[in-house]
Amino acid sequence: MEAIKKFQVSTEELSEKEKLVLEKLVHACELIAPLYGKQKNSKFEGANFYPSDVKKEEIEEAAKKNPLLLHPYTFVEKDRRGRLIAVPFCVKFKKELGEIARTLEEAARISEDRNFSQYLREMARTLLRNDYAQNEILWITRGHFKFSFIIGPVERYLDKLFFKKCAYQAWVGIVDEKRTEEAERFKKIILASRRKILPDTTKIELPKLRLEINKTVCFAGQKADFMTIGTNLPNDVALMEKNGSKLSIFSSSLTYNFKERDYPIFRSVFNKKLQTYFSEGELQLALLRTVLLHEISHSLIRYRDAEQRLKELFPIFDELLAYLLGIKCCGLLILKDALKQKELEAIISVFLLLNFQYWLDTKTDSVRMQYAIGGAICQNFFSREGGLKERNNVCFPDFTKLFISIDHLSHIIEHYLGSASYEEAQKIIEEYGSFEIFEKCASGLKTLPKSKG
Amino acid sequence: MERKKYYLTKEGLEKVKNELEELNRQKIALLDGSGPDSFRFGEIEAEFITFQEDLGNLKKRIAELEDVLENYEPIKAPLKKEQDSVHLGAEVTVEMDGTVEEFKIVGTIESDPANQKISDQSPIGRALLGKKVGNEVKVTTPMVNHGCRILKIKYGSN
Questions:
Q1: Which chain B residue has the Cα nearest residue A333?
Q2: What is the ipTM of this complex?
Q3: Looking at the partner chain, which of B103, B111, B144 has a beta carbon nearest the beta carbon of A334?
Q4: Considering only A88-97, A195-204, A427-436, B79-88, which range has the smallest mean pLDDT?
């Protein structure tokens, strides 16, 4: 299985040399896609990172003696005597990574931007060592280039067994200066309205949050599989604390997702009155803002010990809270007239339809399962609090009640990330994580495109 | 019909004047032969349409700014005895949702929440006008309700 997605993007603004650099970077994306294919296996929670016939407890036990087994950049395999061993990605894929590094080197030679060439060369070097975290630091701290580009193992969603192993991905895009500037303004307003977090929990605050919107040319690996709209790196809290973070919005993917998935879902699950209330343009802008709010919120609050406590359940709560806090921030924006009520209602609608999308995706693939469970928690919670009603197979949101429910739920989820135990987290998932809630409004969804990409 | 009044600080007035000057310069440049050839030959082409759109947008914004300059009222600090309450131009420090925030109350033209300039017509602006230090203020909209307490009111040079 190869995960690659190319978007039609105008390259008029690029010089001939830059076009050649772009070709090389797209080629590097093509080369990394098969490595993701070798990591992915939807039949097993641990994908292909761990032997499928070994129990979770056995791996945990073995990792006490050999911590490399749970290292983010190793495969766990059995040796001849059946013992579990850790095989670094760079050993397993030595030949393939060598070719990718050479491609990056070629791109570096063509590029006339010396800093970008240096960035590509360093990235090529990290690919050949088991030192990919360096790759993320480079991405965050290096200057602002014409191209947005990262390649390597980054996200951990494929590993549903431990949420430790990173999956290969790459993207290349052309930075959209004008839209980046607009997004910067929105970010500034949000950061000016940041709120106090739960006391008595171990959280971090960021030194710096950088942002860019790019006209995405190509996605590979995990990015193509997820058809991500936004991302905020690094994932490692310690790295984030030290280096700050960088948020990227993929505008081509945003347009694609909106046209092919989100807008059809909106027209299918919501009542007719709501469908005429928002224009397509209002909803697409709301999608951009929802993603921005979500990714910015990721930077505002991170709990240092949450990953250790909640283990593989961590991303369910982490992603959900980022959505809830983002929307909650909008309350202050409304009071300051930085956002209109209708715009907030559009953001809430987009959030609800994204939950449907994540659930829908689980029907063909489990890659977004953590998001879908978070979405189910929301939808069930909102339904019980009266913010979301269902009649004749369509949803009737009450935005005022929903906004109050979002506030309530954000406090609850913050508690889970801040101090709850693994068992407590399991309990709330059991209580609120049922997908049945989606089925009620799903009759029209059967005609929608099946999957992403 | 009464004409709309625009309230501007000294700084805001300067900004409007500068923007108008710049836009007029751009308009002259556009009309001064730098437009596409098709404009002169009357051919409808993409370039010509873009040119017309640019010109239309410029003219619209220029008209808006001219209207502001014809109908503005400068924001002045209130009399000393009235400076214990919030008026246009006040720099207000409030405690809100456990966080201390500072902003300046300005007219809608100057509203810039990213830089702590809040319009007097915004929900929070409307709720704060006329209130004094120590007052608990309720800010309500159909969807959002918030309480805040005024910690400090200051008037600088407007």
A1: B113
A2: 0.80
A3: B144
A4: A195-204
